[in-house]
Write a structure and sequence with these properties.
Strand 5 and strand 6 form a beta hairpin. 22% of the residues are buried. Strands 6-5-4-3-7 form a five-stranded antiparallel beta sheet. Helix content is 66%, strand content 5%. Helix 4 packs antiparallel against helix 5. The chain is mainly α.
């Protein structure tokens, strides 16, 4: 089907139709632009969503511990990759399709302008030919009318007897002239008519069909290009579908990786303290409480108090300790600011062996630390081997480098490896000591953040201060000290002031001069404990004792044995029953 033959009389309609095609291409361009904007915005919103829900740097380790958290993190990663594919769609659409559409619009505008110019030129030629034909026809009509009038005038003159022959002859000559002019106009009209008809046939059969054919080709080319671009858009989306499907498969795989059983096990591994379940609470015969109270009320012989280790045998000294005059008591009963200062000095060292953690967590932390040292040692060892090989190459071929230049680096590497091995052995020692100790019942995590911290010995010197939360060093326990000068040497004036305060203290608390600490409960030893130094007392498994002072957060409890000796024992080694519990 050709526009030139079928639409020979629809030139203006075809011109309008082609203009609509160009307008559609421009609208298609706006469509693609908006589509790309939506894809980019969607990708941006997805990435913003991923960023807002992905774990922070400090939370990454915790996310890796549980399958539900780790798999959710995987889903976020897949979603981020999926968002990237939408960006690819937008970028390819902008870089390929939109560029082709804009090029097509430019070509169509130029082609349409040229075709319209050619059509207008052909139309002008036809109109000009028709104008000439009309002019020649009018000339012929005019000449014909004048010839008829001249003929009528001659006939009248020839019939009029009053006119002379000369006048009649003049009229006849005039008639002849007008008839000749009419014939000439007729011939011109006939020639112009023939020429115009030929031009009109050429116009509607050759010239205008050629213009229509060009415009038809332009329109068909536009339609084919639109078809190709629509398919190209689909191909762009189809090209990313495998990657999107991979992301979706990754999400499905992440969901399959979630395991309630594994997460429950992870919770156990993370929070298991390693403490055994407390033993049954023994029956206490309340009829013996009167005996205990009576013995406490009557007091303890003074000579027996003098024989106690680390007790209140020296009244003035203990009262000085309570007032802050000296020893560990004086430090731990001072202001909260002083306690916080001590915590700041000792906090870092106290956690080197992770003793502030429950046994199971402490073991995991030590193993993790040892693994880190092993990895670092392996890396340094590989680096050392590389330097040794390089040194051998330099020795065999001095032109490549000086082997002596590597000596210093090799020596530094060896020192670093020795240092790492020493650190690793230290943590292995912590682990070995931990495994060698019995697993106590009821052992609590010690914390220096408590407002009240109990002292373990009144006679300990602070030049060597044991870590807070640890018992006095025994013969069979590893000694871990940090040298911190906490107490300055008191001057004479401070000692005199101290004595004055002691006097006031004696008067205020005279009830405890002979009695010592009151009995607040009973306890039973769960394990054997050998007193390692002054301030602590030994006990045998199953031994019954009186409780004088509760654990203040440092892991030690003050007890009195049946031989009236007093001292501290590990809280985790005993099972306590307090009288105030009976009153509740």
């Amino acid at each position: 089907m050709s526009w030139g033959t079928e639409l020979w009389d629809q030139y203006d309609t075809i011109a309008t139709h082609t203009l609509k095609g160009i307008d559609f291409c421009e609208r298609f361009t706006h469509f693609l632009k908006d589509r790309c904007s939506i894809e980019l915005k969607y990708a941006s919103e997805l990435k913003k969503l991923v960023k807002s829900y992905q774990p922070k740097k400090k939370e990454e380790e915790e996310y890796q511990q549980y399958s539900w958290a780790a798999r959710f993190w995987d889903v976020l990663k897949e979603l981020h990759d999926l968002a990237g594919q939408h960006e690819v769609i937008a970028e390819n659409t902008q870089g390929q399709v939109m560029k082709d559409v804009q090029s097509l619009i430019s070509e169509m505008k130029q082609q349409r302008r040229k075709d319209l110019q050619d059509g207008a030129k052909v139309q002008d030629q036809l109109r000009e030919s028709l104008a000439k034909l009309d002019k020649s026809r009018k000339n012929y009509e005019k000449a014909f009318k004048m010839a008829e009038k001249a003929t009528d005038d001659y006939r009248k003159a020839d019939a009029d007897i009053n006119l002379s022959r000369a006048e009649v002859e003049k009229t006849r000559n005039q008639m002849m002239i007008k008839n000749n002019q009419c014939d000439e106009s007729k011939n011109e009209y006939a020639a112009q008519l023939q020429q115009t008809n030929q031009h009109q046939r050429d116009h509607y059969t050759q010239q205008m069909p050629s213009v229509f054919q060009q415009m038809q080709s332009m329109e068909e080319n536009r339609i084919n290009k639109i078809k190709s671009m629509v398919k190209q858009i689909a191909d762009i989306e189809r090209s990313v579908i495998p990657i999107i499907n991979t992301c979706i498969d990754g999400m499905v795989k992440a969901s399959d990786g979630i395991s309630a059983e594994e997460d429950s096990k992870a919770v156990i591994d993370k929070y298991k303290s390693g403490f055994p379940i407390p033993a049954d609470i023994p029956f206490e015969d309340l009829s013996n409480s009167s005996v205990i109270d009576t013995s406490n009320a009557n007091g303890t012989p003074k000579n027996s108090l003098d024989n106690r280790k680390g007790t209140v045998s020296d009244k003035k000294k203990n009262r000085k300790d309570k007032k802050g005059g000296g020893g560990l008591f004086g430090i731990f009963t001072s202001s909260k600011a002083t306690i916080n200062k001590i915590i700041g000095l000792l906090g870092e060292e106290s956690k080197e062996d992770f003793s502030d953690l429950p046994p199971n967590q402490q073991r995991k932390a030590l193993n993790r630390k040892i693994d880190e040292f092993k990895k670092e040692i392996a890396r340094e060892t590989a680096e050392r081997e590389g330097m040794l090989k390089m040194k051998d190459v330099y020795v065999n071929n001095p032109a490549l480098g000086d082997p002596n230049a590597l000596e210093k680096k090799i020596e530094e590497n060896a020192q670093k490896i020795d240092s790492l091995q020493a650190e690793m052995r230290k943590y292995q020692g912590y682990l070995a000591n931990m495994d060698a100790k019995p697993s106590p019942v009821g052992q609590r995590r010690n914390s220096l953040s408590d407002d009240s911290i109990s002292q373990s010995s009144t006679n300990m010197e602070m030049s060597q201060t044991s870590l807070p939360g640890q018992p006095p060093v025994a013969a069979n326990e590893p000694e871990v000290y940090t040298t911190v000068e906490i107490r300055k040497k008191p001057d004479k004036k401070a000692i005199d002031d101290e004595e004055d305060h002691v006097g006031e203290f004696e008067h205020a608390e005279g009830d405890f001069d002979e009695e010592g600490f009151p009995v607040i409960g009973t306890c039973r030893a769960l394990y054997i404990y050998e007193a390692g130094n002054e301030g602590s007392v030994a006990m045998t498994e199953g031994e019954e004792m009186f409780v004088l002072e509760q654990d203040q957060g440092d892991g030690w409890t003050r007890v009195r044995k049946h031989d009236n000796s007093e001292g501290f024992v590990p809280t985790s080694y005993i099972q306590c029953h307090f009288y105030d519990q009976d009153e509740v």
